[in-house]
């Protein structure tokens, strides 16, 4: 019932429609039985059961049978209309609620939740609630009332035939109890996990198809995707086979009322000799008992459908149950743009080792610092603590003397331009991509950003210029070109703090030179922190921090670090060898 309460919360102002739909569906189920009673009365009248041979009521019975059947259908249609309106509102509100929460998530959330998984949960799991609310629950009310009413009628008309009908009914319920034991929920949980994993890996596989084709590999070479398919197949196959015999028996017995009614009717006729009355009742029973089997089949899967619906809403809520970053009750404004790390310790959820271990350094306003070091040393994590991808476990990160946790989120983001290693351009026009952070920017400001980011030649060679669409049904740019467009976006934003995460990582030599020029313009007069593997890009920065195992191993200018003959000197020598290397 807790699941239904959650659904009613998402129904909003349409929550009143759901109970009305259940009532209408129940009434429709009862109405569907009435025509059978009138057909039984017609047969009794024709056969003269009870000593009455009258043709007058037959037409009346027929019209009542047709009228109640039509009325039942109209009521059922109204029930479905109301349940569908409620179901659509639940889907919409679940998606809206999830997207609102995701928009408020810290940026670190998107590093641990891939797009395929989020799409599957928000889109497919929200959609999976539709059938439960629009069809299963309304049908269930009728499915419960109809069989109960039929069982009562079976004993009212002829209790002896009613007892005969109880035999397959009891056997069916016993089998249903065996099938619907707690292992069903365990299977459903494993099934949904396997489905989610397969969906996530499928998205990753599709993204990697170019690499798979280049190296002439097959799906088998993409081990995680292949394993997820095999896991799903084995899980479903094993469970299906476990149902094979009991479900076959259940299907036969629940549809086998006739096998018990006919012998019972013969025995009753042999004892009473009342052929007409017994045959009339048996005809009615054979006509109406299929309603029991069809409705019980719906009841049989109630537990499964309830679990799936609850699991769907739980997964959506669990996705958005990521720890939110606390907002200060009294936010403060930074009094400058210098950056201070003071005894900062940070570790990822579930990790034992610190990713950042007691880091302390200061970047004076308007200066440029660089982080270098081996991959996995903690450079990116340090940089991402500035815009609050996550909050530190110990110590503090300050901007202009104010702890970033005391700065309003929107205010904090407005003061930082973050250029990622993996550039993200939206599938829209170049103009909209560049002005994403400043939608009201003037044409002159956009042109200036294009010039300073060294993107003019990209724009000029495209027939539609800034109105050219990116991606599907549009133009595709190289990695270096995308990075320059991203830099144009950052230049237009003109934030006083710039954080660069491997901005030239995927650039060819020509693009790297142009990107370096764009970076120079972007960082001019700004407080900047850059992460670089290509050491040539950090020679002129104000200070270099060598990061190793989450700590500062060395720091100083390029020349100072070379003179120390330490880690940085070793890195520089290796870098020089790589630059000089030829085939």
Mean pLDDT: 81
Helical run tally: 22
The biggest sheet, with number of strands, parallel, antiparallel or mixed sense and barrel status, is:
6 strands, mixed
Q: Give Rg in angstroms.
A: 36 Å
User: What fraction of the residues are assigned to beta strands by DSSP?
Assistant: 5-15%
Oligomeric assembly? single chain
Strand arrangement within the widest β-sheet reads 6-7-8-3-9-10
- Given this structure, which CATH class of the largest domain is correct? Mainly Alpha
Structural class: alpha/beta
CATH architecture assignment of the largest domain: Up-down Bundle
Report the principal-axis shape: elongated
- The number of E-state strands comes to 10
Low-confidence stretches: none
Query: What's the end-to-end separation, in Å?
Result: 70 Å
The percent of residues in helical segments reads 55-70%
CATH topology-level name of the largest domain: ABC transporter transmembrane region fold
CATH H-tier superfamily of the largest domain: ABC transporter type 1, transmembrane domain
Describe this structure in words.
This protein has helices at 2-11, 17-31, 34-47, 56-103, 109-112, 115-157, 159-179, 183-207, 209-214, 223-254, 257-272, 275-300, 302-319, 379-384, 409-414, 430-434, 443-452, 456-461, 479-493, 509-523, 558-564, 567-580; strands at residues 339-346, 356-363, 368-372, 394-399, 402-403, 416-419, 497-501, 527-531, 543-548, 551-556. It is α/β, with parallel strands linked by helices and 583 residues long. The protein folds into two domains: 2-319, ABC transporter type 1, transmembrane domain (ABC transporter transmembrane region fold, Up-down Bundle); 339-580, Rossmann fold (3-Layer(aba) Sandwich), CATH 3.40.50. The strands form two sheets. Strands 6-7-8-3-9-10 form a six-stranded mixed beta sheet. The protein has a four-stranded antiparallel beta sheet with strand order 2-1-4-5, with no helix packed on it. Helix 4 (56-103) packs antiparallel against helix 6 (115-157). The chain is elongated and about 115 Å long. The two termini are 70 Å apart. 33% of the residues are buried.
């Amino acid at each position: 019932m807790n699941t239904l309460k959650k659904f009613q919360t998402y129904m909003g102002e349409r929550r009143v429609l759901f109970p009305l739909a259940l009532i209408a569906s129940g009434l429709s189920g009862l109405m569907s039985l009435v025509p059978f009673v009138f057909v039984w009365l017609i047969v009794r009248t024709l056969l003269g059961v009870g000593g009455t041979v009258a043709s007058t009521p037959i037409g009346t019975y027929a019209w009542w049978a047709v009228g109640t059947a039509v009325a039942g259908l109209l009521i059922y249609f109204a029930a479905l209309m109301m349940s569908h309106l409620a179901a659509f509102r639940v889907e919409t509100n679940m998606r809206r609620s999830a997207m609102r929460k995701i928009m408020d998530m810290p940026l670190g959330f998107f590093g641990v939740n891939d797009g395929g998984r989020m799409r599957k949960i928000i889109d497919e799991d929200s959609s999976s609630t539709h059938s439960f609310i629009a069809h299963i629950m309304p049908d269930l009310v009728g499915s419960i009332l109809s069989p109960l009413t039929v069982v009562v009628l079976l004993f009212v008309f002829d209790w002896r035939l009613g007892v005969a009908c109880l035999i397959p009914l009891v056997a069916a319920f016993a089998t249903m109890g065996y099938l619907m034991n707690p292992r069903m929920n365990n299977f459903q949980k494993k099934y949904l996990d396997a489905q989610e994993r397969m969906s996530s890996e499928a998205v990753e596989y599709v993204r990697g198809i170019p690499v798979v084709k280049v190296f002439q590999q097959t799906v088998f070479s993409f081990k995680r995707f292949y394993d997820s398919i095999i896991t799903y197949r084995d899980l479903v196959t094993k469970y299906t086979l476990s149902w094979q015999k009991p479900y076959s028996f259940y299907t036969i017995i629940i549809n086998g009322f006739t096998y018990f009614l006919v012998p019972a009717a013969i025995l009753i006729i042999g004892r009473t000799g009342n052929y007409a009355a017994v045959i009339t009742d048996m005809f009615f029973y054979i006509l109406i008992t299929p309603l029991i089997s069809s409705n019980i089949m719906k009841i049989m899967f109630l537990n499964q459908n309830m679990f799936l619906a609850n699991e769907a809403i739980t997964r959506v809520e669990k996705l958005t149950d990521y720890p939110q970053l606390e907002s200060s009750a009294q936010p403060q404004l930074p009094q400058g743009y210098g950056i201070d790390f003071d005894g900062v310790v940070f570790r990822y959820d579930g990790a034992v080792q610190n990713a950042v271990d007691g880091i302390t350094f200061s970047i004076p306003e308007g200066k440029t610092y660089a982080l270098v070091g081996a991959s996995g040393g903690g450079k990116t994590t340090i940089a991402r603590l500035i815009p609050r991808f996550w909050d530190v476990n110990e110590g503090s990160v300050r901007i202009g003397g104010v702890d970033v946790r005391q700065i309003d989120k929107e205010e904090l983001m407005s003061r930082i331009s973050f250029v990622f290693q993996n550039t993200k351009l939206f599938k829209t026009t170049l103009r909209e991509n560049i002005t994403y952070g400043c939608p009201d920017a003037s044409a002159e400001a956009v042109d200036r950003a294009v010039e300073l980011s060294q993107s003019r030649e990209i724009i000029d060679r495209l027939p539609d210029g800034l109105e050219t669409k990116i991606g599907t049904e549009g133009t595709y740019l190289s990695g270096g070109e995308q990075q320059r467009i991203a830099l144009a976006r950052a230049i237009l934003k003109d934030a006083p703090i710039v954080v660069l995460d491997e901005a030239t990582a995927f650039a060819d030599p020509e693009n790297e030179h142009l990107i370096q020029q764009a970076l120079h313009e972007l960082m001019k007069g700004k407080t900047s922190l850059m992460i670089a593997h290509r050491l040539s890009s950090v020679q002129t920065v104000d200070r270099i921090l060598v990061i190793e195992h989450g700590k500062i191993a060395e720091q100083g200018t390029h020349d100072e670090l070379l003179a120390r003959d330490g880690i940085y000197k070793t890195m520089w020598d290796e870098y020089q060898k790589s630059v000089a290397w030829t085939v």
